[in-house]
Every structure is written in structure tokens, then in C-alpha cells.
Amino acid sequence: MPARKPDALTFQELLFRLQAFWAARGCVLQQPYDVELGAGTMAPETFLRVLGPRPYKVGYAQPSRRPADGRYGENPNRLFKHTQYQLILKPPPVNVQERYLESLEAIGIDLRQHDLKFEEDNWEWPAGGAWGVGWQVMLDGLEITQFTYFQQCGGLDLDPISAELTYGLERIAAFLQDVDSIYDIVWARDAETGAAITYGDVRLDEELQFSVYNFEFADVSKLWEHFNLYEAEGKALLDQASALFSKEDADAAVKRRFPLLATYELALKCSNLFNLLDARGAISVTERVGVIGRIRALAVGVAKAYAVQQSF
Amino acid sequence: MADFLLEIGLEEIPARMIAGAEAELGKRVHNLLTRERLLGPGGKLTTYSTPRRLAVLVEDVLAEQADTEEQLTGPSWKVAFKDGAPTAAAEAFAKKAGVAVQLLEKITNAKGEYVGASVKRLGRPAAELLTAELPKEVLGLYWAKNMYWRAGKPERFVRPVRWVVALLDEAIVPVEIAGIAAGNASRGHRVLHGEAPVVLAKATDYPEALRKALVIVDVAARRHTIRKALDAETRTVAGARWREDAALIETVVHLTEWPSVVLGDFESEHLTLPEEVLVTVMRDHQKYFAVEGADGKLAPHFLAVLNTKVDDEGRAIIRHGNARVLGARFKDAQFFWDFDQKIKLVDRVESLNNVTFQKELGSYHLKTSWNDGVAFKLHETLKGKGFVDYSYAVLQQAVGLAKTDLTTELVKEFTELQGNVGGLYIQAQGLPGDFKKETVEKVGEAIYWQYRPASTDDAIPPTVEGQLLGVADRIQTIIAMFSIGSAPTGSKDPFALRRAANAIVKILAESDLPLTLNEIVEASSAKDDWTSYKNQVAEFLRERLHFYLKDVRGFAYDVVNAVLAAGTDDVRDAIARAEALTAVRGSEDFAAISAAFKRIKNILRQAEEKQFAIGSPKDVPLSTEAQQLSDAAAALAPEVARLRQQRAYGEALALIATLRPAVDAFFDKAMVLDPDPAARGAHLGLIDEVLRGFSGIADFSEIVTN
Fold it and tell me: What pTM does this model have?
């Protein structure tokens, strides 16, 4: 069995390399979105930028919260919050697959020593009215990337479409470093002392405490209150947007400044609250579909309004 | 004579869709060449595919169509030529035909003399026709899921098209597909060959040139390579054998361009987990083949099929990577198994309130109570028939616990193990109270088998309790779905209700359960407002019985129609009748009887249309032949009825066939629709009796005779 790899990229070197690779190919490097969300797709840099005709290329790391996946820091493979590296290429270049493979070489994966397959996997986010067609990329039996050609977002057909590459950074790091537990991943190495700071050093407490909160302490009635407040505000804003956008004589500049981006954040808050309530076991079977529908109404409402706003 | 190659290069096609598309492309190209008269006498078509390409190679294509001569017929000669000179009609026809007036001919046929013209049509070059016709053939391929990728969405296809090769011998056919102009350059294995184009000098170079570029384009060859490699790798473990899995073989065939195999290990401590758990993880999640030892038991190894070839160092790396993933999954499975034991299945019944059965219907807790009702009604029905060779207590326990495994972590993670996990957990946990060990085993077994048969090829549950659980659960689901308007439509059956109904029919066909379809439908309704759906459900089951007899058991369609016209309620009885009818249908006597019964039906229908009264054969004195038929029928009827009671259908049918002489004689000599209404009524009454008296086994008029 190959020995643990001391020369493998640290977690943060991995991120540097990916950022550098895609920056060199014309991508804007954004920061992670600073509102709780469950996947890189949900950030406005993806969800809203894929709408409409304007080309765009962006890459960003995105810590993604999934309360139900918390394991108190005890499971070596599963996290409450994992880090995606999210990439949007709009429109996709004709050699997008080859570019992706080059990015793997750039992070130290010599494809001639590994088995790589593109296996059918069609991703969707029903609450966002979003879906696409594509693959999970398998490397020696491990899924390392979700590769999707977006077809619809916010319930709208996309033209041009976007290619979305979502790398699972913890998985890739654990693979490169050949460690059996995510917590053993070397996050960074002190240049002077050579001391390694591990993933566990950085995040174990967070994983533990948030699992405790998500499963044991989160106040269900307050979570519902938050949800209802955010939802109400979001709905009110969408109604205002709708009224404003349909006013023929209203100024284009006024229409353009309407805060849809802030409205979207309210939808994101609702989505995260749903995940918290779900982890708490507080959503009954009969409620579930209805609540997802309410989030969808907000998210898709924003998407549609945003698409209209782009035309003013 | 030329050879034609078409290769469509694209991004990885889903493995499950490739075989169908490859075959369809071959058919489309074949049909195109045939209808355009471009296929030579030695025409041979071969299809190829990998995940990244679909190709067709046709040997013996005509470089251009043969010229044709078409004979056009115009106006009559008298109209076209007057006094030897052409008229305007002749001129017009000549112009239309594109020939000089002087070249017009005289055609004489049965209708007289006409003007004719022989028009020579030059054959078009193959390249021109292919360029014009191929794009719509390729873009017309059926895909279960399509996407668009180009701005303006000009076409939809399974994945973006990235290159096209179209060659007629050495010449490029200038076709354009999805915006890609055809050339003579293909692509080799992404990693092993790299991005250098694979230039093809001529069409027939295709398979070899791609092989040199590390791509095996022939599916059968890839399959063979994989199987041989599985054998070779397994031989490295003494006495071991890999577990055959035809479906998995097909999947990995369609995931690779240059396959090789690596054998890896897992910790033998995981072998304490049931085999079905281990194999499901290996097969469904990781696409590995399982390995068994000489004793037939699972061995701590797996076989991974790779899309590459690597040296020993690479093999060690890949083996290690796969083993890591598998080890983690097995550890999870072990964790879930252990965690699940903390709350026994019997203690999980209430938590079924939190598992949705269907959003408009409710939870699995509710479904379980409905299932319980159905099982009870079936039990009562069976008791009424004296069928008691099973334990209602076992059935009741099994029904009550059947869905509890849906709340377990193991099933949440590996949903395909539903049922299996329930059965295994019951065996491991036992049941509270005074249940004997063998009762516990039976309950577990029934739960284990509840989702079988999974297809029309699959086995039915081996125990009566398992069969009844399977029937009860499925019929309850069917009527519940119908009640919320979710019955299957032509192309949509998202809840797999057809599969469920097929399973009910199959269970009845292959077990000893003395239940009819109507009894099962009767037992299914849990709510008063569902009673109105019983008819629809009964019709649905009848249609599934039709399917079973025709498509699964392979009875001829007319035999199936004949048998079902006489009764659709009892599945095994329908099968017995179909078998008996199939055996006799070839006989001359039987063909004659079928023809006669068709005739009888037609006459009776005519009589109804004309509102002739149907009397009785006793109304008037009958002619000799009519009386003989009446006597023969009367003599046979009780005997046939007795044989039918005994289900001795073969003998009954043979007996019915002996009516033939009397029936033939009757139709020969008697005038059925006698002008005298009394005689007519008596005749109609006679044939009506014959029809009704002998159609209990099958409606012979449905049998197709030549």
C-alpha cells in the first residue's frame, strides 16, 4: 500500500492551485457567499448569473451547510459543513471537459496513474427550479466532481447554458494526501517550523458544536418564526418588484436599483431554516412538500424578476 | 463500390442508453441507404460504440445511385396528336416530362392508346444524398433524456457533439451535424492516447486505427476483454470465482473505451454483514464484481473494471483508491447496522408516522393499517375456501412490520435494500413474546421477499405468507394511487403500478393461492369512497393478465384473446385454458370449429341488427341437419361441462371438436335465416345455444384461421 503522501498538496494549497488555474483561464475569483447556504449553486454568483444572455466565468470556494449530515465530528467521511469549489463557465467552451481534466493535472493528479470515468448523474435543485444534465466524475471509485450542463434555473430556460463544475475539496484533499479521515487532512503547514495544522484542528469543534445545536438545541418554534418572518418580507418585496416592473412609466434606473439581490437572501435564509427544521425532525411528511413549495415560490420569484430586471 | 463510415463523437453518453442508440443509428443508416438505392448486393453494415462515440461502417455502398428510367403516361393519343401533329396537350405533357415532343412515344394499354415518355433520371451521388439526409437521421435518434448546448438551441441531443467523421472510402463526405463539419479525424483514448487526432486514411481503417489509439470500438470485443480480464484477475486468488452479473457487465462495457480489471481486498471483518448488503454496496454504488470462494461464500475481494491500462505502480494506486472508498462504505454499513439494532423494528412502528407513503395519501403508518385490512380480507376469503395451509399470525406480524425498515439508517443509505433489511433485522432481533424460532424466521422471510418478484423474470416469494403480503401490499398501493388520479397513462407510470400488477398476476400464476383477481380487488378497498375505483383496478389487472399471457408466457395473441373472452378472473385457469387451446389450434377440426363459431357470431350479429327474434330450437320441427346439430350439442354439453369442472381442458376441447361434422352439415344444408320467422327464430336459437354452450373455455371465433 502506497505510503501517506508527505508531498501532497495541503488543503489550502489545493484551493490556491484551483483558483490559480481557473484565474489563468479568465475566471473571476469570487469569495464564498456570506449567507448560510447548502451548495455553491445557491450562491447568487451561480443562481442569478446563469440567467440571461450575459457571458460570465467565475470560481469560488463555498462552505456548504447540510445540518442533517452532521455527525458530531465522529464520522471520518461526513460533515455538517463541507467545502465545494464552484465554477461556472457561461457559455461552456467546446473543450470544457479537457479543461477540467487539465485542472486535475494542475492539482497533482497524474491521469495516467488513475482510473477516471464520467458516469451519468443529472443534478437538480427543485426548490430553485433548477436542473441540468451531466456526470459525476469518478476517480479510482471516488466521486470528486459534479459536472453539470445547466438547462433551467429559476424555472427559466437558459440561453446560453452554463457548465457548472463542483469539486468536493475535502474528498480531493483526503484522496491526494491518502488519509482515512477528513480530520487528518493537513490544512496548512507552518513554513518555518514545518508543523502541520490539520482539518480537525481547524474545524472539529465547529462540527461538534453545530451538530449539537442542529440536532439538540435549535429552538423549533423560533426557527418557524424566523422562517415566517423572512418569507413574509420576501413575498412583500417580490410583490413590490412585480408592481414596479409592470409600471410602464417608471424610470428604468429605479427598476434597476430594486433590491432583488437582498430579496434572494431572504429565500436563502428560508432554505437554511428548512434544513435546520428538517434536521430537528420538525417537518412532518405532509408539511414537507408544502414548505419546499414556499421556498421555491421565493427563489423562482426572484429568478424571474431578476431576468426581467436585466432587460431594463 | 465504396465503403462508408459515419462516426459521431460526443461527450460521455449515459451507459444505459448506448446499446439502444447504437442499434437505432445502424437501422436508420441502413434504411436511408436502402431507400435511396445506395446499398450494393454485398452490403454489410456494422455498428460500433464507446461512451464517446457512435459509429456505423457500411461496406459495399454505391458511389452513386443507378440511373433510372421512368415511364410517364400522358393524355390519350387521340387528344395528343391530331392528323399526325402534336397538340397543345402533347406540348404540355412533353414539357412536364422534360423531353422533346418528337421523343414522345405511343403507349398501348388496356384502356387504349396514350402518349408516353421515357424519362431518364440520373442517379445522384451518394455523398450528396448522405450530406442532405444524415443530419436528420442522427439528430432524430431517441434519447431518454436530451439536452441542448448551443446558443439559440438549434438541436437537442444526449450530450454535446464534438466531432464527426464521414468517409466514403478516402473521401470526406461534407455533412454537417449539430454545427460540426465532418472530417477524417477521430479521437483516441483521452488519457492513453491524448489529444492528437486519429486521422483515418479510409473508412475501413476505422476499427484498427482506433485500436491503435487505445479505443476498442467493437462492443462485443470489449465485453470479451472484460470477461477475460475478470477471469485472469480472479485466478490470482486460489479457488475463487467472480460472481456473474450480466447487467453489471453491460454497464461496465458501456463505461469504458479500453478496459482492464483490478482485484482489490476489503477487511474480512466486514463479512459479518449479510451478503446482500455487501453485494449491493459493491455492485450498485461502486460497480464492482463480487468474488466468492470455493465454498460459494463471499470472499473479501472485489473486482473493479477500469477505463485504462496502467503499470504495476498504477494498479497499486488504483487498487488502493478503490479499496479506500469501499472500506469507508462498508464501515458506514456496519455502523448503520449496529446503530439500527438500538431500536428494534417492533419498536419502530409508531415512527412510520414520519415516513411518507404518498403526499396526498399519508404516511406508511396509515398504509400499514390499510395493508392489514387487505390481508385480513384475503385471509377471510381463503378461510371460506378451506385454504388454511399457512399461518395468519405470521402474515399479520409480517404486514405490521413490513415497512419499519424504512426508518432504519441502513435503508435510508441503501434504499435498494428495503425489504431485505427488514427480513434480516427480524431474524437478528427476534420478536417479543412467545414466538417460536421458526415463526420468527417465517415472519422475516415474508418481509424479506415482499418486493419480489421485482420483474417478470424474477422468482415469487417461496412461502404463502410472503405471497399474501406481496399481493396485499401491491393491490392496496394500486387502488390507493387510482383513487388520487395517479393511475398509469400511456407512457407514464411513475409509481410502477404496472410492475406491481404484473407481480400480482405472476404470484397467482406460479403459486397455489386459490384467489381470483376479483377477490383480490374486493379485498383491496379500505375506504368506502374507493369502491368506485374497483372497476378501474379490475380492468387494469385484466390488462396485466393479458400482458402476462401474451408477453411473458408467449401465448399467441389470438389464443389469449379467445381465452380471456371466456373469463379473466382466475389466472391459473386462464393459463390452463390457453395451454389446451394452443395444443389443439393447429388441428383441422379445430380450425373448422373456429371458422364455424365466427360464422355463428356474425349471423347472430346480423340478426340483432335486423332485429330478428331469437327463438328456441324446440319451437318448430327442425330439418335433419339442424336436428342432428341440436342432438349432437345436447349430447356433448354435459360431458364438456363435466370436463370443464375438472379443468380437463384438453379433453373438453377435443370433444368440442367432434361437433365439426354436425356443424359443417348444418351450414351446408340449412338456411339459417329462413324466410319463415319461426324457422329462422328456431335456427338462431340453435346456433345461439351452441355458441353459448361451448364458449366457456374460450371464444373460438377469436382464433385466426387461414
Answer: 0.83
